[in-house]
Amino acid sequence: MPLPENHPLETGQTRDSALLRSYRGEYVTARPVWFMRQAGRSLPEYRALRADIPMLQACLEPELVTEITLQPVRRHGVDAAILFSDIVIPALLAGVEVEIVPGRGPVFAHPVRTRADVHALPDLDPQALDVIRRAVALTVAALGTTPLIAFAGAPFTLASYLVEGGPSKDQLRARTMMRADPQTWDALARWCARVSGAFLRAQVESGASAAQVFDSWAGSLDRETWRRHAAPHTARTIAALDGLAVPRVHFGLGTAGVYDLLPDLGADVIGVDWRTPLDLAHERAPRVPLQGNIDPAVLGADWPAVADHVHDVLRRGAAAPGHVVNLGHGVPPSTDPDVLTRIVELVHATEVRG
Ligand code: 1CP
Question: Residue 274 in 3-state DSSP?
């Protein structure tokens, strides 16, 4: 099934935006910019709205999702919105018990560690995604010509929370499952790919103009293990978008060692973390537009240091077939939001020659 007729890419509303043009590798004079975790605790207006409502409950209230998604667009003038949601939402909608514990992250009531645990995971009823469809439709209508980015967690990243039961330093239990019981791992990763894929597809069908898969923790695997036990599942998640003509972005931390493999998995754009200079990322994946990679740590420095670093990122990204400016990971909650606004102004005011 192709994109619906009223989709912003079909009506033309977002088709020629700087974001979409850059994701397609077309030349734009001023680079588009958005920030991972641009909605969230760095914004006082977000903290005010979220004061009395738990994180995951907020994600299931379409009006609230729309308002929170739009806050950074209004405040900073970024070139894209990303849906206010979380990678664990499809698990929650399938009926898995999970909450986001403030200051910690997602915590699952029952960690998934055995074959029986994996087989007991409930299927995601497609109707359960209606709340996401409503939230996206409302958000897209309010955004007008600003494109919305859909997202989902890659199976290894989502599964690492399910297996550990919560955040972990090095995803040790999930990595052990791959080696100790590869069949159970495979069944779990397939479940994650199904629910994440359905979540991603629902957002795009309802009006998102691009899609990003957060393979955030992929860098804790060596290349061969990633290729064997994680990449096929990431590819399945991306393939859930088959038939829907939107750009697909892959983002991971510490994934420079697999950039060359990403286009074959269906990624059209590579999200680069702060550790890999964009000129080096471009050498590793020469035909692919890049996204990134301002070091989130610089946001706490004086403005001249920030501006210097942003210029360096623009210079290094210039050779890539397209460059969407972003951070190398999410906005730290302690960030002064005015710094983000100034970065947007600086990026928009700087002409880059490819
Ligand atoms: O207000 C709060 O206290 C909740 C903090 C918060 C927010 C705002 C969490 C908990 N999730 C989110 C929203 C969120 N999560 C978005 C929204 C859109 C935006 O970027 O503005 C997105 C894209 C995510 C994706 C997400 N959640 C990822 C992938 C991105 C990444 O950071 O690598 C991951 C790993 C999660 C899990 C998660 N959810 C929340 C936290 C604190 C974490 C990370 C926990 C950990 O460190 O393991």
Answer: coil
If DSSP codes are grouped into helix, strand and coil, which group holds residue 145?
A: coil
Q: Which two tokens stand for residue 243?
A: 């038939």
**Spatial distance between the Cα atoms of 117 and 324, rounded to a whole number of angstroms:** 41
Nearest alpha carbon to residue 280 among 322, 317, 324: 317
Pick the CATH number of 8-349 from 3.30.1360.120, 1.10.3720.10, 3.20.20.210, 3.30.70.2190: 3.20.20.210
Of residues 63, 247, 62, 242, the one with CA closest to residue 147: 247
Residue 329 labeled ligand binder: yes
ipTM: 0.92
pTM of the model: 0.97
Residue range 77-110, pLDDT digits in tens: 999 999 999 999 999 999 999 999 999 999 999 9
In this structure, the number of other CB atoms found within 10 A of the CB of residue 92 comes to 22
The answer, yes or no, to whether any atom of ligand 1 lies below 6 A from the CB of 314, is: no
Please state the domain extents for the chain. Answer: 8-349
Crossing angle (nearest 10°) for helices 182-205 and 231-239: 30
In three-state secondary structure terms, 231 is helix
What's the 330 CA to ligand 1 centre distance in angstroms? 8
Active site residues: 37, 41, 50, 86, 161
37 is in an annotated binding site: yes
H-helix or E-strand spanning residue 159: helix 155-164
Helix (H, G, I), strand (E, B) or coil at 318: coil
Instruction: Please enumerate in sequence order all residues whose Cβ is within 8 A of that of 314, keeping only pairs 6 or more positions apart, or say none.
Output: 31, 323, 325, 347, 350, 352
